[in-house]
Amino acid sequence: MLTFGKMMLPLAGIALLLSSCSKEEVQEATITAESVEAIFTTRSQETTRATGNRWEAGDLIGIFALREGMPLSTDAVYDAKANIAYENNVDGTSGLFTPAMTPIRFPADGSAIDFVAYYPYSTAVSSDYQLAIDLSQQTPLSAIDLMYATATGQTKANPSVPLTFTHSLSRFELTLTADEGLLLEGATLIIDNVLTEGSMNLATGTVTAGTTSSSITPVISIDAANNRAVATAILLPGQQADALSVQILLADGKQYHWSPAAATLLSGKHYSYSLNLTASVPGAE
């Protein structure tokens, strides 16, 4: 459940070794080089996140630590830190993540490393760093609102790593209104011909749609007082909008069918449509 701080770093990376001193001699403090734990702060773009651009406490992201300048691969993974789960601790437009397993630590020698991160966290990342996508179940939307971020050239000198997430999928939103006498309360919607399976290449952030299509039930919010409804779904980029067939069933049994205009859905885009239902239209039954 997406909602998006900073955290003070304990001085764990500096050990001061002091000995007793006299008037005649003063021994200088010795600094011991140690690795420093990484801290991740996050922000999301306000594009398709199911809960707007907000992080929620308990959100999990997956993080890969990489040798500097190397794309995600088995050889590139630094210190075996692959797909490490980090959990958000605060609600808001910025998130503050702490490790849910063995933490990532920067190299003790001060050298730089890179990071790849994604949301939501999954244990099902393949050996070639592909993340399977399944959009057949739309509730809750936050569970399928896939996002991706990278950070390069990070060192222990500044262990707070900023991650700016971008939305990888497309958001489809249909706002319904109706003429007097038609009530939207109790309405249900089904979207047919939806591409529901795909994958993300975590090395590049590229999403590829599969060929499996089926029907989905979007998340619908109904404002009965104003006779208004909003149906929201998260879809794969590459989906042809005009291939979608929306079925609207009112509580009184009236049915409507509608399809959007031709468009190829793009990653990170929000597609918003409005439709007014009348008592007698060609699409009604």
From TrEMBL:
One of its GO terms (molecular function) is endonuclease activity. Signal peptide: none annotated. PROSITE patterns: PROKAR_LIPOPROTEIN. This is Putative endonuclease. Gene3D superfamilies: 2.60.40.2630, Fimbrillin-like. The keyword Repeat does not apply. Keywords: Endonuclease, Hydrolase, Nuclease. It comes from the Bacteria.
